[in-house]
Amino acid sequence: MENLGLLVDTTKCTGCRGCQVACKQWNQLPAEPTTFKGTYQNHPDLTANNFTILTYHEYEEDGQLKWYFTKRQCMHCLDPACMKVCPQKAISQTATGAVVRDMAKCVGCQYCTYACPFHVPKYNASIDKVTKCSLCVNRVAEGLEPACVKACVTGALQFGKRDELLALAKQRVDSLLSLYPRANIYGETEAGGTNILYVLTDFPGKYGLPEDPKVSPVTIAWNDYIKPYGPWLIALTAAGSILSFFTTRLLGAGKAAHEEEKFHG
């Protein structure tokens, strides 16, 4: 089955936050208190009860104020690091590539929050679980599009087959290059590729997106070396402790015998 994803065309986004409200409504997420931080963006970052947010970035360019809006949510990586590090196997990929979690299996260890190169999953202390966007897997299973896409009135969000969305994104970027020379696609190759694709008119950093998202070396070491050989390492550590115990006792006994021999001549 082909991967399904989301295309976010930032040139069509007006920052209305309809997608953000629709996500909270569909997932029945509670409101959270927030404070004004000098920007219209609300909340400042994804939270355990806000699976998607509209981010606002303002710059002065050519003497004018310019806004750069974009939507943030789980990127649904083609090769998700969060899934690899989960010790409970609570995270999996659906047949269409959505990265989903089994809340019954999640124990709130938060390994996935540290492994994600986009810093998306958030810990909910009230339920001791980690939460994030599921790409509305329950709606998609019923033949519906994600709630955020349904709510987008400007056509900035499109849902469909990743390959087709990528082709659309390339066409869109080609049409923008004369006006925006730095127009680019984000998500085609970042972190190994993602099912969420963006059309940007400038560098990803201007939109608050990681320029070069990478999985941390600690995560790679954990997944490739420590996790597979963990039982062997534990056994070796235990064997070393036992060997050290007997070696210490033998050396102590030898030293005592030597001192007794010296005392009695």
Give a written overview of the molecule:
The chain is α+β, with helices and mostly antiparallel strands and 265 residues long. Helices cover 34% and strands 18% of the residues. It is built from seven helices and ten strands. The chain has helices at 18-26, 81-85, 111-115, 137-140, 147-151, 162-176, 217-263, and strands at 4-9, 53-61, 64-72, 91-93, 99-101, 122-124, 129-131, 157-161, 184-186, 196-200. The strands form four sheets. A four-stranded mixed β-sheet has the order 8-1-10-9, with helices on one face. A hairpin with a 2-residue loop joins strand 2 and strand 3. The longest helix has 47 residues, at 217-263. The mean pLDDT is 91.
Mean pLDDT over the residues: 91
Output the helix-strand order: EHEEHEEHEEHHEHEEH
With helices defined by DSSP (H or I, 4 residues minimum), what is the helix count? 7
Content-based structural category = alpha+beta
Distance between the termini: 87 Å
